[in-house]
Amino acid sequence: MLDTARRKEMLRQMVLVRAFEEKLEELYQRKAMFGSTHSYRGQEAIAVGVCSALQPKDLIASYHRGTGHLIAKGADLYTLLCECMGREDGYSKGRGGKMHMGDMGFGFIGNTGTVGGTVPTATGAALAAKIRGSKEVVVSFFGDGAANQGVVHESMNLAGVWKLPVIYVCENNQYAMTVSLAKSVAIKHLSERGAAYGFEGKTIDGNDVEAVHEAAEQAAAKGRSDGGATFLECVTYRWDGHFGGDPGTGYRPKEEIEAWKQKCPIKRLKENLIREGQLSEPEFQKMSDTVYAELDEVAKRAEAAPLPKKAVDLSSIYAPTEVSHG
Amino acid sequence: MVNSAAATQSPTKEMRVQEALREALRYEMARDERVFVMGEDVALFGGAYGVTRGLMQEFGERRVLDTPISESALVGLAVGAAINGMRPVVEIQFSDLLPLAMDQLASHAARYHYMTGGRVNVPMVVRNKFATRAGGGPSHSSCNHGAFIHFPGLKIIMPTTPADAKGLLLAAIRDPNPVLCFESHHLYGIRGPVPEGDHTVPIGKATVRREGKDLTIVTCGGMVLKADAAADQVKEKGIAIEIVDLRSLAPLDKETILNSVSKTKRAIVLDEGPMIGGISAEIAAMIQENLFSDLKGPVVRIAAQPIPPPHSPPLVDAMIPDVDQVVEAVMRLAEGGKIA
Q1: Domains in chain B with CATH codes
Q2: ipTM score of the complex?
Q3: Which of A222, B24, B110, B313 sees the fewest Cβ atoms within 10 Å?
Q4: How far is CA A256 from each of CA A49, A185, A243, A263, rounded to the nearest angstrom?
Q5: Is B311 one of the catalytic residues?
Q6: Quick check: pTM over 0.80?
């Protein structure tokens, strides 16, 4: 059982992840950011539960709905928001946007917009750890939609063959954009796939941050002690549409959305802590207000930050070569 | 044919292209713990073309990995291993199979450095064999190199001589960027002197294989041999051909190409890959944009016909450039431009 301080920190992080999504949505609605959003609201327990179980040297790879993972792994909020807003101060200097970043400084391998595209990247990072014996564990975050990409299958097969220290965290929010899981796979649980690759697959409640944390901690310990990969299917639901501008209601019954909102991961942990006498409603409100206020400040700075200059820098496509030619 | 190794001073050893490639792998694996090799049949069997023979025995199974047939994941895993500090070298058996890994090459390996604002580097090499030849057919004899010039961030090398094979591959493994190495089937058996020890050839530098004042043939890979044969034939007619061997398709060495054509004022671009939208189209356009008023005739492209690579020898011969075609084009340009 986690101590109260850590559980409260997990609660705060989930609030922060949600507040960030709401800030992006606000910026998107008033056309203050470029491109679309991919809201993570409703799924916060997965990013926070998994990343809180990792060590600083452990790595994560993410995908298009990735801001939550980055925040939970320790991204700088200003730099992250600047990237979403196409600013020079962003992680990628405005070149990548929120779907294309990477910074090994906080253990973030990268994310891209090809669904399933970073599953091999995470697997390869785990191969590096295995070859070196350097003991870092790698988390590959992806959605239920990515589970049906060929390269995901190929990568998991290799992780099984080579017993790689990777945790495949499948965030099953039950819709690949608009297509339901029932239309996409003939099995009941995506975690059944683990058996096909020779490693453990588990289906867990993705809205229970403590359950996610515990499962991730076990998977990480297994990976670190050469026990190989784990497939963690975290069942959850995205509250919003697939992207900004999609109300998310054309393909999902209103009752279904409402029912899942009742299973809010933040509400759940908060109520548990209150019931146990570890937290009061005013204390929560104060923490939440602080998070939102801090984010408002960050957003003000990001909005005032300059865009990149209108220029093509051809030298930016390659890393500088330090090869000496004998 | 002029060998670039002649320019260096270190002692040389005679070997074939495959052996020179293996020399580069061995040299760098011994020097740098981060280098490892993976691919189908590369360990126990030593690679479909023998390039990795003996490496598993020398460096162990931890660093020379036989893999299942999963081209997309192999390239994708290499990207991840490279980001996490290793220097992977992947073997893909045929150029035809690169499209299986296209997303990982074009949207991941090629773009990581740029799209992360320079925070992430992807130092990896993908080797593959290519050539259009009889018996290979539509899925085993493609020349896909031209397709990859559309993806900024990739470096593309195509060694011709054994010395360049070692030098370019060694430079590729040390390069902090993803490098695609196209190895021509036509050249694997070619022998030549290879400098021993630490021999690198800079990526992005073409070389003049043969000097001449009358006409430049810009070419690469196995076509260098055909250009050379054509140059021998027209020499008897008093025409001196200069051959520019690109060695790297990306970055392209525009300077060496333009210097040569400024001198000869006539140019043929010869490529085994498809003519439409290919490397020959790119270079021909680049030459005329820069040197239009100096040229004594049109820049001529000789490249593959726009059909899938066929199986039967006569069909293959009709598809890819041959020496007679090159000689004919030289004579046409010679008459139009009044050489000799």
Answers
A1: 7-195 (3.40.50.970), 207-336 (3.40.50.920)
A2: 0.96
A3: B313
A4: 24, 20, 19, 11
A5: no
A6: yes
